[in-house]
Known about the structure:
Structural class: alpha+beta
Number of helices: 13
Oligomer: single chain
Radius of gyration: 20 Å
Distance between the termini: 13 Å
Number of strands: 9
Strand content: 15-25%
Order of helices and strands: EHEEEEEEEHHEHHHHHHHHHH
Amino acid sequence: MRQIPTYALYGEKNSNQPMDWLHCESIPARSSRFNWEIAAHRHANLFQILNMTRGRAECLIGDVWRPLKPPVAVLVMPGVVHGFRFSPDTDGHVLTLLADQALQFPGLAPQLRPLLAQSRIIDLPPEVSPAVAQAVGAVVADYASSDISRVGMIEAQLTVLLISLGRVLAADADALSPNRHAAAFRALLDKHFREQRSVAFYAGQLGISEVHLNRVCRASLGRSALGVVNQRLLVEARRDLTFTLLSVKEIAYSLGFQDPAYFTRFFTKQAGMTPTEFRRRSGPHPDR
């Protein structure tokens, strides 16, 4: 049964890391073993920072492939489907942290944490990229050392790295606009969409009313809050029908539908065809 896999680290079912909350490696170290392509996968409880300093690449976050042009950083949250296609001359590093530890460093301003707690691509301005590269390099060096003070140095450099990335995001007008509620809603939805939560639940988590959430969604996302929830379910259903051999019933249950027949009606209404017809047209295929 082929599903989008959940890894400790890509290609590994279990992780044997020298430190129990951090792993560091260069992009070539792992991607070159897989012909420079990291297929779609997710991590259950890991937060990743990729810093690409050279080369060309495409990045999958959720269901969209986007080009990467260095210097660039990519944040990947737990549970978010992601993948990469690198050119062989790509260089940079990937830092992997336990999600519970990732944004808890004391020196990280609380205002920056929501900005960093979303999967996203961060194009690094010239005035910021050297600081990011230096902080990443320092983390990698201390990770490989046996110095008794390395943990403190790693935490300090990770704080510098996250502050540098957070400042880039804070300088983005979109990040400071009312669209932050829409972004926060999307982040919550990525975490809870399989639980079939109500719009009231999401509004409550955001500390706003359902009316306000609907207004935000229509202005920023072009549809009602319920429409956004349904679209997220549809995206995952399409992905599972295309890339896995799960039955329609199994996909329905995995997405929180208690009645597979209701899932079929939902999918047909949203996609304009039944799940079976969609699968027949689009997959799965052995080479995917």
